[in-house]
Amino acid sequence: MKNVKKLLALLLVFAMVFALVGCTNTPKPDDTKADTQKEETKKDEPAKDTETEKADTDEKGDEPAPEGELSPYEEAIAKRREEYEKTGEYQKVVYAIYTWIGKPAGTERIQEEMNKILREKLCLEIELMVLDFASYRQNIQLNLTNNDEQVDWFGGNALGYTSCVNNGFCYDMEEDNLIETYGPGICELISEEYRDACKFDGKLTGIPPMKDIAINCGAMMIGKEYLDAIGYEYHENENQEVPTTWDEIEKIFTQLHEKFPDKYVFAVGGNQFGQGSIVDNIGNDWFGVLLDPTKDKTVVNLFESDEWMTMVKRMYDWNQNKGFMSADALTDTTSISAKCKSGQYMAMLSQAKPGYKSQISGECGREMIVFILGQPIVKSSGVSNVITCLNQASPDPIAAMQVMNELYTDPELSTLLVWGQEGIDYVFTDDGHITFPEGVDAQNAEWYHTMNWELPNQYLTPCWVGDPLDLGQKTMEFNNSAPKSLAMGFTFDNTEFTAEYAALQSAYDEYANQLLYGFLDPEKGTAEFNEKLKAAGLDEYIAEKQRQLDAWFAAQ
Amino acid sequence: MARTIQTWPNAKNKNIGKKFVKSIPFYIMALPAAVYLFINNYMPLPGLVLAFKNFNAKKGIYGSDWYGLKNFKYLFATGEAFTITRNTLLYNFAFIIINTILAIFVAILLSEMRSRFKSVYQSLILLPYMISMVIVSYLVFAFLSTENGFLNNTILKPLGKDPIAWYSEKKYWPFILVLVSCWKVIGYNCIIYLSSILGIDRTFYEAAAIDGAGKIKQITRITLPLLKPTIIMMTLLAIGRIFYSDFGLFYQVPQNQGALYPVTNTIDTYVYRGLIQNGKPALSAAAGLYQSFVGFVLILSANLIVRRIDADSALF
Q: Cβ–Cβ of B80/A16 closer than 8 Å?
């Protein structure tokens, strides 16, 4: 009896000790079960409830059959209609979107308006899953791992595109010619060159939205009201930008600081270095970069470069000697545009593109003047740094692709998604721009997310007041005219270097922001930082990056 | 065990049957907890294979390729391993010792207290335990914020001292974390000790008082020795979790500040950050398994030692 008790106690202890592994670190068993069940149903009953990949291939087999001369595209819709007549329920496609502000109040209304069109056109419904960026990452990642809730389209860049691909989250859109058959409009808009730049291992695991691929790095935004208060004169060029220098900005900041001693001048946050320079962080991390990406193919350590030292020295001076930053800048994780919106901060650093003035003025809730410190460039990840991926567990990739095709090509749907409903979220002005209706502004709007660049095709929509009416054309010109990084389209596979990467990132987190926000002595801090990075395996990591880059160049 | 079963005569078996019937209400009472334990703690066990897999969502957990011990490499391959292991162990040792001593101290004070407000004190001490770590982190921030914090503005300024950038100075954090942990946990631990103390037969104290023992003598000679089994059990349980750290305490309270990593990074926070950056479920499964395994070994060996010293107090 005593032995039984002992054994029982041992078992209990065992269970208790291992409990944490169960509840936090591995997906719950019911989830995995559901997952495998889902997969089973997928395999066994392809035609039940949803069409699946199998149905897709079956269909293709029948393709030549002259069944009423329907193209596979139309046939998929007809099939859904049949299904709908039987069940009376629309199949849905879930599109997960992130915003800086969470779910706008008008989400359900916009979704319903979009569904009115989609029910008619494709005989299905869309569900907009809108989350704020921080929770997006965690929620979507978990969902992609155990597929508890349906997610079809998601923003791969929010989770790290490479890691999405490595974890096998993304559907290969060229499998069975999915994108050619069911997304012809997308293929037309996103050229082969751009699609190739998104490929991993020859697989099309994501597609970029229609947006600026080039960036105008080093854009300093300052609130117009503050500039007017110090009487600063500036002249915007035809792109609504003011070319300037770092020294000039410093002068403005000094005056602003004198005039408004109660406000902070400069809102720091995000990756200040990436925004402010043409240095190309190939492979989407800072451990091994191309300093002059349009000319030089050598991967070097950024933190030993002059570019880095100049930047951190300036920031140290701005923070410690000139007092432009908040002493709590390191702990305050509010986004920089939200800081400017609060009225406590007057300027922020980002990167510009055509029409940026209107976007950032929207985000900051006040008119911002865009000063340009750098130059335009297309970085290696330019095409894929905002990317939309299709979940490999999507119950119906065909339906998902058809919806995405509509979002890329239908102006009405696009306008709803980007700007909302006419009369409620926007009204037309006399000259063909759109703006807020009476009584609505950036602060109380129900659908004004300013996430245009994340959504499939912002250029099918009317232009907001302040934007040039030919914004789309201007952007395309901007994309084509900017010098391209030699490594454009290169992706770095660090699977074999996960340990090093984690340690490097840990060192980066420890030092980078302290240096970039001017809280640590530039010389001493950078030296310590480099020591830590080297100990974490920076040299091997850079060598591997160079090796992969050289191989990539050779294959081009 | 087999031997015992063999020697049980039939009559005894009947006895057991009777006993079982008699205990049915208790089994039913225990059922929800047992079911919970089974679902939450036993059913996920097969998922541990994830630690040895090269996870691919397309293939699922069980269908992914085997990956050997490569997932574990990331825990040990870097210089960080030493720091995070040291932090985890030392902080937990400090917590075990300090929190136990303080909790017993408070429990004894409460048990000796004859005030009508006793229950009020008890609730007040327990209150911090109920507060979420996220909120605690902002309470701490209210004290430590460089620009607007209580310490810098209300205490250091009148004293004519320079403000301290608390969130970039490593040296203060071991003390801050221990303090916060004490403040939060003591109320809960002291209830457990208090209930043990209240369970002690009052006649011991009466007899001791008659023999002329003062309060201090009563505490050291009666209360503490009788508390020993509880202390040992609580410590054993804590040792079993010595490889885990309170994630909220080490992640939220220092506001995830990079500058503080050398003194606040523990295995849990390191794994969490690694997971968020790498996005690899298999890595965190490996870390979880490693922590569990070490915890299991630790609790077994601690129990073994306890049994050597005092067999009755051992768990099994």
A: no
Whether residues A21 and B74 touch (CB distance < 8 A) is answered with no
Q: How far is CA A139 from CA A9, A177, A443, B47, B294, in A?
A: 37, 30, 27, 20, 30
Q: What is the CATH number of domain A90-212+382-471?
A: 3.40.190.10
Task: Return the pLDDT at B208.
Answer: 92
Minimal CA–CA distance to A52: which of A71, A89, A80, A33? A80
Strands A368-372 and A215-223: antiparallel
pLDDT at A34: 40
A215-268+325-374: which CATH number, 3.40.190.10, 3.40.190.170, 2.40.50.140, 3.50.50.60? 3.40.190.10
Could you state, in chain order, the average pLDDT of each consecutive group of 10 residues for chain B (316 residues)? 47 72 90 93 87 84 83 75 87 94 93 86 91 94 90 89 89 95 92 92 91 89 91 85 89 90 89 75 83 85 84 75
Q: Considering only alpha carbons, which residue of chain A is nearest residue B39?
A: A29
C-alpha R_g of chain A: 26
- The helix or strand, by DSSP H or E, that contains position B233, with its residue range, turns out to be helix B224-240
Q: Is B165 on the interface with A (CB under 8 A)?
A: yes
Query: H-helix or E-strand containing A202?
Result: none
Residue A35: pLDDT band by 50, 70, 90 thresholds? very low
Q: What is the pTM of this model?
A: 0.76
| C-alpha to C-alpha distance for A302 and A308, rounded to whole angstroms | 7
Indicate yes or no: CB of B165 within 8 angstroms of CB of A512: no
A119: number of CA atoms within 13 Å, CB side? 12
End-to-end CA distance of chain B: 15
A343-353: average pLDDT? 92
Strand partners, B65: B54
Domain with CATH 3.40.190.10 in chain A: 90-212+382-471, 215-268+325-374
Closest CA of chain A from B151, distance in Å: 14
Domains in chain B with CATH codes = 2-43 (no CATH), 80-279 (1.10.3720.10)
With H, G, I as helix, E, B as strand and everything else as coil, classify residue B159.
coil
Contacts B47 to A, Cβ<8 Å? 21-22, 26-27, 29, 32
How high is the mean pLDDT of chain A? Answer: 85
A541 confidence band (pLDDT: 50, 70, 90): very high
CB atoms within 10 A of CB B280: 22
For the question of an ipTM over 0.85, the answer is no
Residue B10 in tokens: 């039939």
B129, B91, B93: which is closest to B263 by C-alpha? B91
